[in-house]
Amino acid sequence: MPSVKDLRDRIKSLKNTQQITKAMKQVAAAKIRRAEMAQKQARPYADALSQMLRDLMGAVSSVDHPFMKPGKAGAPSGVILMTADKGLAGAFNANLIRAAEIYVKTHADASFFTVGNKGRNTVRRMDRANHPTWALNAPSKIDTARAVAAAVTDAFVAGEIGDIVLISPKLVSMMSQKPETRRLVPIEQTALVGDAPVEKKAGAVEFSPSPEFVLSRLLPKYLEFTIYSAMLETDAAFFAAQLIAMNNATDNAGKLIDELTIKMNNARQAAITKELLEIVAGAEALSGS
Predict the structure, then answer these.
(1) Which of 23, 66, 194, 274: CA 20 to 30 A from 77?
(2) Residues of the chain with pLDDT under 70
(3) Which residues of 10-47 are buried (b: 16+ CB within 10 A; e: fewer)?
(4) pTM of the predicted model, to two decimals?
């Protein structure tokens, strides 16, 4: 049975740990608010971009752009694996890594582009050490998104990869963050305008020099902003997962402290009782002599 001193040291250590988890919980709560604010600020641009793409798709008969055509036959799939840079967020990173491993089972020759240090380390363990990688918490996420989009675009146009797939978290709620696997390129028309048929609105919107030219310039921006939006959502999902994990850790530490406090009190009481018994026994021995 542990001594009173050992139990007291364990309680002190748990209290220190509890203070750390409380602080991390408060930091995660503050950061998730900033991440949600960044998502809200980016939403008007996303809506305007989607509306313009719908107008363009309704004004053109065909699009001569690599993103709207199938990739090179037989080329490996290009996978953008997006994770967090740090851990201490429950199974957040593990779920994303598991989704990547499931995808690799059916696409063994997949070529990876990782965003986030956890994803980078995982891909290196897959014997794919030489691959493009970026940190999620870079000074400028939009610059990172542009760099990622440029790298995968060059690889797709050159025929090094046959498509572009994104594996990233989807923030369902504060309690739920699920990995999502979706193909970004080749771009399907339904991905831009939805399942509803595109209406031809001749003369409704004028584009210069031509709708085809504007659309060819807009499609790369669409890819950049899709990656940027995924980075913002990954940030928000990570802090939500970390908030829940640190809250649970704080509660568990409190329960352990209560249990160890009871054990320490029992051990202290047992030690006191033992000392009293020894005193009584010694007194009786002296009186008997």
Answers:
(1) 194
(2) 1, 58-59, 61-63, 129, 189-208, 211, 288-289
(3) bbeebeebbeebeebbeebeebbeebbebbeebeeeee
(4) 0.81
